[in-house]
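Input structure tokens:
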């Protein structure tokens, strides 16, 4: 008997197994029968989110990322700047601020997120896990470029540029 490679569902596999056992039982009655399971095996598939890293804009204009969500750069002279966490993105993706400015991140997603600096940032910062509606604040006193991510979803990236 020649076997061809193919994908077989659980129900089809059970049917083929029953048929093979039945045929084997007809060929030789001296061999014991093999018990066949009566239910199909259950398979649990966990959903996976695949997303490309969001490129960070380095200009002062609105640019399009590889996905359909825009990444923007905001320059602020205010002492307080807000960044939303929404649709698995930091909005705006990049802010340029003066030393002494406080940035407030607000999680608008029903999914948990963090705001965590990555190297090489001049000063490290790390929020607790932010639930929907939670905020995290950090005051930037030292000039430099601060890259950050969400630890839970590391494809989410942002930049804070502190210029003097």
């Amino acid at each position: 008997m020649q076997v061809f490679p193919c994908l077989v569902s659980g129900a089809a596999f059970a049917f083929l197994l029953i048929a093979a056992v039945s045929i084997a039982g007809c060929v030789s009655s001296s061999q014991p029968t093999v018990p066949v399971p009566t239910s199909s095996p259950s398979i649990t598939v966990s959903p996976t989110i695949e997303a490309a890293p969001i490129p960070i804009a380095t200009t002062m204009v609105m640019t399009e990322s590889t996905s359909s969500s825009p990444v923007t750069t905001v320059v602020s002279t205010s002492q307080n700047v807000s960044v939303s966490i929404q649709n698995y993105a930091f909005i705006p993706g990049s802010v340029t601020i003066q030393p002494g400015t406080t940035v407030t991140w607000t999680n608008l997603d029903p999914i948990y997120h963090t705001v965590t600096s990555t190297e090489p940032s001049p000063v490290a910062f790390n929020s607790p896990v932010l639930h929907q509606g939670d905020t995290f604040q950090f005051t930037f006193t030292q000039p430099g470029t601060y890259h950050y991510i969400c630890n839970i979803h590391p494809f989410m990236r942002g930049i804070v540029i502190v210029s003097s």
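Residues 8-45 form one domain. The longest strand covers residues 101-107.
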